[in-house]
Every structure is written in structure tokens, then in C-alpha cells.
């Protein structure tokens, strides 16, 4: 029961920090310094990534109409011809929604850099940077960048106010910022992509929404990669570990639903500076406590 309670706490941390630009991976690493799950090291590496799958499902649920690229339309099909003229019958035809193919191509383009680096250097990145101090440094650096970008940006009107208006060049730029988060835990995937989007003139709401959409293939791919490595290594998962993973994932899903709704409402009236200050304060505390 104690381990399940810990899994609930980790699910809450994941659900809150995955979508706020404050680094979910960083918080999971730091939280694990104080509330350790009584599991193997291999299972922990699997848990901290696969638990993100619950957060992905929250995005899919809330943005299903925009993410699902297909729709149906009624068309007339020629059936036969007689003296009085042609006869037709109607049938449903599956087709792409308007703009859906273009949107998904932009998402794929933005995900390519992080996907390549993640596949090639996943283990090396874990070894070098998945430690409290590198996470703390990343928290502080990106926090400072957030404050600078929002200060410089000020009251300037954004030039891109919808995902349809994002160009492929802008998608590549946002993808490169996402790459930084893939390499340096504590950077925050959502934080990096939002900062990158703001810097090139994308509105806050559009930046956040595009970040949510990017998370679907990126986080699903990361979860699949970790699970595949775990299975191929021949490591057996106990029933207790499977239950811990399930509980953490479900809690992350439920919490994510509320956090995403909160963030989309919050940024309509506020900027991201508060998250920048939070990151700086947290990073300093981590260095002072864990140095």
C-alpha cells in the first residue's frame, strides 16, 4: 500500500509538471531523491518515462477533434442509367479533414530532431544528465530565458495566432528547441518548445496547443522505446511493479486533464514569467540542498 501511495504521488507530480513549463522529468528525478519507490533501478527508468503515457491520453481526450485527422462526407455514386436518366446512390467516404494533413506533417517535422537524438543517444543522455545538479542548472537557465523572452516580447502582437498559420520553417525551429529538452532533463519539453515558439512570434495559446500536439508522438515514442529496451533486456516485471505503473499512469491522466484546462485558461490573461521565477527558485534550492 505504501508503494501504491508513492505511485499516486508520482502520478500527481507527472500530471502537473508535464504540461506546465517547469520540467516533468526534472521534478520526477528530484522527487525521487526524497520519495523513492522500492523498485529495481531498471523498473524505475521504465516507470519515469512510461507514466507519461497517461499524460498523453489526456491530450488525446481533450483535443480529439483536432488531432483525429479523418472525417466522413456523403458523396453521390453513379449506379445505373435508363431512359429517364442517371440514377445515383449516396455513400459515406472517409477523407482528410481540411488542414489536418498539413498539421500532422508540421508535427512530424518538428519531432524529427528529438526522435533521432533520442534513439541514438538515449542511454548516454541518461548517464550524463539524469542527475539532480544538471537538472537544477537547466531549471535555472530556462527560467531566466523565460523571463527575458516575456520581458522583451512585452505587448508585441504575435504574428502567428493559429496552428494552421505555423510555417514549416517555424515548425523546424520549434523542433530544435524541443531537441534541447530531449538532451537536458530539467529543460522541460513544453518549456523549451513554448519559449522557442514565443521567440519567433507565435501566440501563447498557439504555442501551448502546438506543444501539446507535439507531445503525442514524442512521448508515445519515448514510452515505446523504454518499454522495448526493458523487454529486450529480458527483465521480468512483477505483479506489484505492474500495479504501481498502472496506478501512476492513471493518476497522471486524471491530473493532466485538469492541468491542461487550467493552463489554457491561465495564458489567456497572463504570461509565463511566474513559471520562470518558479524554475529559478527551485533550481537554487536543489543546488543548496543536494550539493
Automatic annotation (TrEMBL):
The keyword Zinc-finger does not apply. Its EC number is 3.6.1.27. It catalyses: di-trans,octa-cis-undecaprenyl diphosphate + H2O = di-trans,octa-cis-undecaprenyl phosphate + phosphate + H(+). The keyword Transmembrane helix applies. It comes from the Bacteria. The chain crosses the membrane at residues 43-64, 103-121, 133-152, 173-200, 212-232, 244-266, 272-290. It is found in: Cell membrane. InterPro entries: UppP. It is a multi-pass membrane protein. It is an enzyme of class 3 (hydrolase). GO terms for molecular function: undecaprenyl-diphosphatase activity. Keywords: Antibiotic resistance, Cell membrane, Cell shape, Cell wall biogenesis/degradation, Hydrolase, Membrane, Peptidoglycan synthesis, Transmembrane, Transmembrane helix. Pfam families: BacA. Its main location: membrane. PANTHER family: UNDECAPRENYL-DIPHOSPHATASE. NCBIfam families: PRK00281.1-4, PRK00281.1-5, undec_PP_bacA. Belongs to the UppP family. Catalyzes the dephosphorylation of undecaprenyl diphosphate (UPP). Confers resistance to bacitracin. Bacitracin is thought to be involved in the inhibition of peptidoglycan synthesis by sequestering undecaprenyl diphosphate, thereby reducing the pool of lipid carrier available. This is Undecaprenyl-diphosphatase. It comes from Lachnospira intestinalis.
Amino acid at each position: 500500500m505504501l508503494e501504491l501511495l508513492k505511485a499516486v504521488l508520482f502520478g500527481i507530480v507527472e500530471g502537473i509538471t508535464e504540461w506546465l513549463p517547469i520540467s516533468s522529468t526534472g521534478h520526477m528525478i528530484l522527487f525521487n531523491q526524497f520519495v523513492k519507490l522500492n523498485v529495481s533501478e531498471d523498473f524505475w527508468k521504465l516507470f519515469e518515462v512510461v507514466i507519461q503515457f497517461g499524460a498523453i491520453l489526456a491530450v488525446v481526450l481533450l483535443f480529439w477533434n483536432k488531432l483525429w485527422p479523418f472525417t466522413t462526407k456523403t458523396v453521390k455514386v453513379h449506379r445505373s442509367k435508363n431512359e429517364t436518366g442517371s440514377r445515383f446512390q449516396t455513400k459515406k467516404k472517409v477523407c482528410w479533414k481540411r488542414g489536418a494533413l498539413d498539421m500532422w506533417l508540421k508535427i512530424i517535422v518538428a519531432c524529427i530532431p528529438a526522435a533521432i537524438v533520442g534513439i541514438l543517444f538515449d542511454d548516454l543522455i541518461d548517464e550524463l544528465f539524469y542527475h539532480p545538479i544538471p537538472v537544477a542548472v537547466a531549471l535555472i537557465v530556462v527560467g531566466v530565458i523565460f523571463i527575458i523572452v516575456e520581458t522583451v516580447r512585452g505587448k508585441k502582437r504575435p504574428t502567428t495566432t493559429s496552428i494552421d498559420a505555423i510555417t514549416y520553417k517555424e515548425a523546424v525551429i520549434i523542433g530544435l528547441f524541443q531537441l534541447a529538452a530531449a538532451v537536458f532533463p530539467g529543460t522541460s519539453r513544453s518549456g523549451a518548445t513554448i519559449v522557442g515558439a514565443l521567440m519567433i512570434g507565435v501566440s501563447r495559446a498557439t504555442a501551448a496547443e502546438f506543444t501539446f500536439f507535439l507531445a503525442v508522438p514524442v512521448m508515445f515514442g519515448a514510452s515505446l522505446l523504454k518499454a522495448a529496451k526493458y523487454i529486450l533486456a529480458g527483465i521480468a516485471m512483477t505483479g506489484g511493479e505492474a500495479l504501481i505503473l498502472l496506478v501512476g499512469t492513471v493518476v497522471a491522466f486524471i491530473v493532466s486533464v485538469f492541468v491542461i484546462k487550467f493552463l489554457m485558461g491561465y495564458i489567456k490573461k497572463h504570461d509565463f514569467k511566474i513559471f520562470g521565477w518558479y524554475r529559478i527558485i527551485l533550481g537554487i534550492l536543489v543546488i543548496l540542498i543536494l550539493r
